[in-house]
Design brief:
The protein is of the alpha+beta class. The chain contains 15 helices and 16 strands. The strands form 3 sheets. An 8-stranded mixed beta sheet has the order 1-5-6-11-10-9-7-8. Strands 13-12-14-15-16 form a 5-stranded mixed beta sheet, sandwiched between helices. The protein has a 3-stranded antiparallel beta sheet with strand order 2-4-3, with no helix packed on it. Helix 5 packs antiparallel against helix 8 and helix 6 packs antiparallel against helix 7. Bound molecules: (6-bromopyridin-2-yl)methanol.
């Protein structure tokens, strides 16, 4: 840290411990396990990321919404065996209510849409950036919180909504320098699964559970997948038939298997045709194994992946036309995605695309004499009222210290208030990039 600028004793900025204070056990100054602090440098990167989330949302005509980070636990209790349920950060509050830190934003959106009911005019295009939580045994050392950008379209049954959502993510990737050679989207539809299960007369109510098991297809051994499917009630034949379809990577092949009459093929063909028109065909590929890990998806599902295969899914989403009725509301066609703030940063680091973001203050204002501190404050106020950022030096500091601080904060100008000049109503301006120095009347300063 900088020298203490001639102040007596102690470290710069810290008070000397009082002689009478008893020995205090130092607390653990790290944040709780699985959570992060955002000191200035990290906060600048987060703000940069969120700025692009917000800019894309604005360009696509979406409105920002938000919800409490704390929700009723009931919003997330689904019986499909999802990981998100097993890791729910839930507890009983002092009013004996079962509550949970939200693990995702979509159920909150559904709750708000039901609450607002007829007062809403559809289609809704809403976005949110919210911190989401999970309580995972730290054995895996994974994070327990992340920020998610969500975009949702409600009231549009057409696949044009999914096409628009994927277009918005492509637009985001392009803004931060990620191209189709870095990432892609695996796209499928849960209607593929539905049509296959129907062929084997699997009861509809097993659909959600089967999806959650299938979502683990690349995370656990295939024998475990088969065992879990059989335990859920699927026959060996149904399991084999299902796994065979899930290995399909071409729409043409899928059509040969399923026939061309079903909704799955129609939806997927429309989406790939729209992708052509949106100009992002190179970004997407059909992959029947994509089902996503949330039980409420009912149609098109997609996930962004890094082509080098080093990272977990970057983002994911899909259609969820039946979510509102699970909360007792009237169903509205809906689709959306979630985009976390962590994997994308790992990708940017991999690609050398993390931006240089330094503190940028326009002016440092410093009184050269203690009795000019009030004048310096006036100078700072005048500049701030003109929209200029000012780092006002708040204590008597030697010029060496001020120059060091100006360098650290990338200040563009140094405004010095000295007795000699102030006698003539002038202040000294030093342009730090050029070294140019001049005197100017306070009222002419801008
Ligand atoms: O994507 C699943 C998830 C949910 C909440 C918090 C974190 Br970290 N991860």
């Amino acid at each position: 840290s900088s020298d203490n600028g001639g102040r007596s004793g102690g470290r710069s900025g810290a008070l000397s411990p009082s002689p009478v204070a008893e020995e205090v056990q130092r607390i653990d100054v790290n944040p709780p396990k699985g959570t992060r602090d955002f000191p200035p440098e990290d906060m600048r990167l987060r703000n940069w990321l969120f700025f692009h989330f917000r800019e894309v949302s604005r360009l696509f005509g979406f409105e920002e919404v938000d919800y409490p980070v704390l929700e009723s636990e009931a919003l997330f209790i689904r019986k499909a065996g999802e990981e998100i349920r097993d890791q729910l950060y839930c507890f009983e509050d002092r009013g004996n209510r079962r509550v949970a830190l939200r693990p995702e934003l979509t159920p909150s959106l559904a709750r708000l849409v039901i609450q607002k009911g007829k007062s809403l005019s559809f289609p809704l295009k809403w976005f949110a950036i919210g911190q989401c939580w999970r309580y995972e045994r730290m054995t895996r050392g994974r994070r327990r919180e992340h920020y998610q950008w969500n975009m949702d379209v409600l009231g549009v049954p057409e696949v044009t909504a999914e096409a628009e959502l994927i277009a918005s993510i492509v637009a985001f990737f392009k803004r931060i320098g990620i191209t189709e050679s870095d990432v892609g989207f695996k796209v499928s539809s849960r209607k593929v699964l539905q049509e296959v299960l129907r062929c084997y007369s699997v009861p509809e109510n097993l659909f959600g559970k089967v999806c959650i098991i299938i979502d683990k297809i690349e995370k656990i051994p295939i024998d475990e997948i088969k065992r879990e499917l059989n335990a859920t009630g699927l026959s060996e034949e149904a399991t084999e038939g299902l796994l065979q379809v899930l290995s399909i990577k071409s729409l043409t092949k899928l059509e040969e298997i399923l026939g061309g009459a079903g909704e799955a093929i129609a939806d997927l063909k429309q989406l790939f045709s729209l992708a052509e028109k949106f100009g992002y065909s190179e970004w997407i590929q059909f992959d029947a194994s994509v089902v996503r890990g949330l039980a409420y998806y009912t149609g098109i599902v997609f996930e962004g992946f890094d082509r080098e295969g080093k990272l977990r899914a970057i983002c994911g989403g899909g259609r969820y036309d039946r979510l509102l009725s699970t909360f007792g509301g009237d169903d509205v066609p809906a689709c959306g995605f979630g985009f976390g703030d962590a994997v994308i940063v790992e990708l940017l680091k991999e690609k050398g695309l993390v931006p240089e973001l330094s503190l940028e203050v326009e002016n440092i204002v410093c009184a050269l004499d203690h009795d000019l501190q009030a004048v310096a404050a006036t100078v700072a106020t005048k500049l701030r009222e003109k929209g200029q950022s000012v780092d006002l030096v708040l204590e008597s500091k030697p010029l060496k210290w001020v120059f060091k601080r100006a360098a650290r904060t990338n200040a563009q100008r140094l405004i010095l208030v000295g007795n000699t000049e102030w006698q003539r109503g002038m202040v000294v301006v030093k342009v730090l990039s050029s070294g140019e120095q001049y005197e100017i009347k306070l009222d002419e300063l801008e």
